[in-house]
TrEMBL record:
Gene3D superfamilies: alpha/beta hydrolase (3.40.50.1820)
Species this chain originates from: Anopheles culicifacies
Top-level taxon of origin: Eukaryota
Entry protein name: Lipase
PANTHER family recorded: LYSOSOMAL ACID LIPASE-RELATED
Xref: SUPFAM superfamilies: alpha/beta-Hydrolases
Length: 163
C-alpha cells in the first residue's frame, strides 16, 4: 500500500506530494530543505523500513517507562523469559566496541537527552556528535540531501580508523 500510494500520490507533479512530505515530517521531524521530493515514492516504499509492530510497541514501552530495557511481555511471560516480572535493562556496561553517537536537534524519535544518557552509559564512547543542521531529523540520517557532507563522511572516517 505504501509503495503504490507513494508511486501514485507522491511522485513529481502529483497534487498530494506535499501531503506525503508532511506525513514523513510528522514521523521524524520537519526539515523541508533536506527532503528530495522526487525520492518520495522510494522513501515511502521503504518507510518504516521493515519495522514490526513489536518494534513500535517496544519503542512505546521505552518511552513510557523511561528505561532502556528489553521487551515487556507482561508479568507472566516476563517471569518465564527473564525470571522477573519486569524486563531487564540492556547491559550497556558489557558493550566494549568503540561507539560514536550522532544526533540531530530535531529528531522526534531519538531525543537529545536520551542520546546524551546513552553516551554516558557506554564504556567506550569515542564521541557524541551533533549534526550541524539545527533542523536535522530522524529520517535525514538516511534520506537527507546533505547527509553525505554533514554525517556520512565522518561516519566513514570512524569506520576506516577503527577497522
Amino acid at each position: 500500500m505504501m509503495t503504490l500510494g507513494g508511486q501514485m500520490l507522491c511522485r513529481d507533479e502529483a497534487l498530494f506530494q506535499e501531503v506525503c512530505a508532511n506525513v514523513l515530517f510528522l514521523i521524524g521531524g520537519f526539515n523541508s530543505p533536506q527532503l528530495n521530493r522526487t525520492m518520495l515514492p522510494a522513501i515511502l516504499a521503504n518507510t518504516p523500513a521493515g519495522a514490526s509492530v513489536n518494534q513500535l510497541v517496544h519503542y512505546a514501552q521505552g518511552y513510557n517507562s523511561g528505561r532502556f530495557r528489553q521487551f515487556d511481555f507482561g508479568l507472566t511471560l516476563n517471569l518465564v523469559r527473564y525470571g522477573s516480572i519486569r524486563p531487564p535493562d540492556y547491559p550497556l556496561d558489557r558493550v566494549t566496541a568503540p561507539v560514536a553517537l550522532h544526533y540531530g536537534d530535531n529528531d522526534w524519535l531519538a531525543a537529545v537527552s536520551d542520546v546524551r544518557q546513552l553516551h554516558s552509559s557506554i564504556r567506550n564512547p569515542i564521541g557524541l556528535f551533533r549534526v550541524s543542521d539545527p533542523n536535522w531529523n530522524h529520517l535525514d540520517f538516511t534520506w537527507g540531501i546533505d547527509a553525505d557532507s554533514l554525517l556520512y563522511r565522518r561516519v566513514i572516517s570512524f569506520m576506516d580508523r577503527y577497522n
